[in-house]
Amino acid sequence: MYRKNRQTVRNQLLRSAQYLIQQQGLVSMRFCDIAKHAETSTGTLYSHFASKENLLVELYVERINDYVKTRQELLDAELNPAERLLVSNLTPIMVSLHSPNTDGLNFMIANAGLWQHAESAYRSQIEASFLKLQQITDKLWLVPIEQGKLLSDMAAIKQCRQLLIGYQRGCVLQSQNLFLREQQSLPSLECSFSTMENLLNGLDWLAPYGHIDQSQVISACRTQLDWHTKALI
Q1: What integer pLDDT is reported at residue 113 of this predicted model?
Q2: Where in the sequence is the signal peptide annotated (predicted)?
C-alpha cells in the first residue's frame, strides 16, 4: 500500500487549512476540521503542528515569501521606479479584493495574537521572512535614490512610505471584512490607484522617472495577482 511521506502529509494539511480559511474565515475554522478535510487523523495533525497558531504561522510565512518573490521580480520589470513602487503597494489590495480570507498577510495583521502565541521556533520564521520582505521593499526605494532618479529628501520619502503602508493596510483589512463585502462597501481599485499615485507624485522625481502609466501598472498588478492566486491553490 502506498504511504505518503511526512512532507506530503504536511503540505496536504497546510492546503486543507488554507482551503478552510478561504471558505469559513480564520476565526470560524476549527483545528480538528483540518485533519478531517485532509482525510487524516487528528493525531497526525498534532504530530505536525502542536497548535492552530503554529500552523497559521507556517501559512503566514509562505505568503510573505510569495511577496518576496514577486517584489524581487519587480526590480527587473519593464517599469520605471515610481511604477514599481505603485505595483508593490497596490498588488496586496488587489489580492484582497479578489477573494476574502485568502491572504495570510491580511488575516495575520488582523489577528496578531495568533502568531504571538506560536512557539518560538515559528516566531523566528516570521522574523526571518519579515526581514527578507523588508530588505526587498527597501531596495525598491533605495535603487532610484542611489541612481539619482528619486530626488526628495529622506524625511519626505519616509513620510510617503508611511502613508502608503497605512493606506494599503486599511484597504486590505476592509476588503477582508465580510460585512463590508456583503454591503459592497469595499474600497475601489480605482480609488486606491489614484490615492497611491498622488502620494508618489508628491515626491521629487527626475523626469521622466516619476511618470506613471496606468495601463502598465494595472497590467503588472494583474500579472502578480495571477501568480498569487495560483500560489493559493
Answers
A1: 61
A2: none
